[in-house]
């Protein structure tokens, strides 16, 4: 538990023993009890970039979810070992696009005669296999902090984008940031023949959105926004772009977890905020700013259950194992997948 002084002391001692051999990364959705031991915290873009910032560290302990640890493995040197404190920390959205489904989708696009015009853009929240598919087909990775720049780049390369796997980030970026209309977007359902789309629909679409979503952000609704505006007059609504389109359209500010933190840091004392993202982060920023009124956008509690799997006992076990020379829970992407996935990740890192 967060207040267990014995565990806190054990984590501190193991980390001290490891010294420069270990570099601990913490995503903003991690628990406070874990975040206190992170050498760096960030959104998924910042953590992907920072993972490679310490080539002298033998162990990268990634306090986040599986796809983030995979990306860190791809972007670090062969000598560095990336460790995920609980192997069950996955992401339900990333699981919504499998390599087989995406290969089948590409066949559908090929048969419809549109594949040559399509550039894949895959959200960071995807498996290394999907990133490799993206790299192989000339596409890029994006995160919530650079999705517009990724789409700008993609539409310089081709006429259509296949956006994987988060339909909401794809739609929100296309409509809110790129000036497209909802009619420019079609939804590809991997569970239906031909994605549930006609050849005509595929030919007319600019954005082909994969039918994936985040179940945590999916819980915010237009009612949540309307209710909070009624309850707290003058409130600023700030949400993550994984929220549904109608929620994002009704919000005042939209951005990544790092953007949310920076916006609240810069907000004047006395200002009022309702935040639509995971609850560990919302509680932490609320505690950090007692001079501002910061509330959760919905009334129901909503943690990301897989992010929450990384807790202090798992971190202590990981650090103590590494300190004793036992490599545990290593995340390792195979060489072939890594080389194509790296292409796609490097295109993202090179975006203007
Ligand atoms: P960020 O890149 O904004 O940190 O988002 C990661 C994520 O998983 C949100 O659900
Ligand atoms: Fe995945 Fe959603 Fe959790 Fe982010 S909040 S890691 S998208 S399940």
Automatic annotation (TrEMBL):
Main subcellular location? cytoplasm
The EC code for this enzyme is 2.5.1.72
Extract the Pfam families matched here. NadA
MF term (GO), any: transferase activity
Q: In which pathway does it act?
A: Cofactor biosynthesis; NAD(+) biosynthesis; quinolinate from iminoaspartate: step 1/1
> Quick check: keyword Iron in the entry?
yes
Query: Which residues make up the binding site for iminosuccinate?
Result: 27, 44, 123-125, 144, 240-242, 257
UniProt xrefs under NCBIfam families = nadA, PRK09375.2-2, PRK09375.2-4
Membership in a protein family = Belongs to the quinolinate synthase family. Type 3 subfamily.
Q: Any idea what job this protein has? A: Catalyzes the condensation of iminoaspartate with dihydroxyacetone phosphate to form quinolinate.
- What is the protein named? Quinolinate synthase
Give the organism, scientific name: Streptomyces narbonensis
């Amino acid at each position: 538990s967060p207040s267990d002084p014995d565990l806190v002391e054990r984590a501190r001692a193991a980390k001290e023993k490891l010294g420069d051999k270990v570099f601990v990364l913490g995503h903003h959705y991690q628990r406070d009890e874990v975040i206190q031991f992170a050498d760096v915290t960030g959104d998924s873009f910042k953590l992907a970039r920072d993972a490679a910032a310490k080539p002298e560290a033998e162990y990268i302990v990634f306090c986040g979810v599986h796809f983030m640890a995979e990306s860190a493995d791809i972007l670090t040197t062969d000598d560095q070992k990336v460790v995920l404190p609980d192997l069950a920390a996955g992401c339900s959205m990333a699981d919504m696009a499998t390599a087989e489904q995406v290969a089948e989708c590409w066949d559908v696009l090929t048969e419809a005669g549109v594949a040559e015009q399509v550039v894949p853009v895959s959200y960071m929240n995807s498996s290394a296999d999907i990133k490799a598919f993206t790299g192989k087909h000339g596409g890029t990775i994006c995160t919530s902090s650079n999705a517009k720049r990724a789409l700008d780049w993609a539409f310089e390369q081709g006429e259509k984008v296949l956006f994987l796997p988060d339909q909401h980030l794809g739609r929100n970026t296309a409509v809110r940031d790129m000036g497209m209309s909802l009619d420019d977007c079609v939804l590809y359902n991997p569970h239906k023949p031909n994605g549930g789309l006609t050849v005509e629909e595929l030919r007319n679409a600019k954005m082909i959105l994969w039918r994936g979503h985040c179940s945590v952000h999916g819980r915010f609704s237009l009612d949540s926004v309307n209710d909070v505006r009624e309850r707290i007059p003058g409130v600023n609504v700030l949400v993550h772009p994984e929220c549904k389109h109608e929620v994002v359209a009704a919000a005042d500010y939209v951005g990544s977890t790092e953007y949310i933190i920076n916006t609240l840091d810069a907000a004047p004392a006395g200002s009022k905020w309702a935040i639509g993202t995971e609850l560990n982060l919302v509680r932490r920023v609320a505690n950090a700013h007692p001079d501002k009124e910061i509330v959760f956008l919905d009334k129901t509690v909503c943690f990301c259950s897989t992010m929450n799997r990384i807790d202090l006992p798992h971190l202590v076990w990981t650090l103590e194992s590494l300190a004793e020379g036992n490599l545990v829970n290593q995340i390792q992407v195979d060489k072939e997948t890594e080389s194509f996935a790296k292409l796609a990740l490097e295109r993202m890192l090179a975006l203007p």
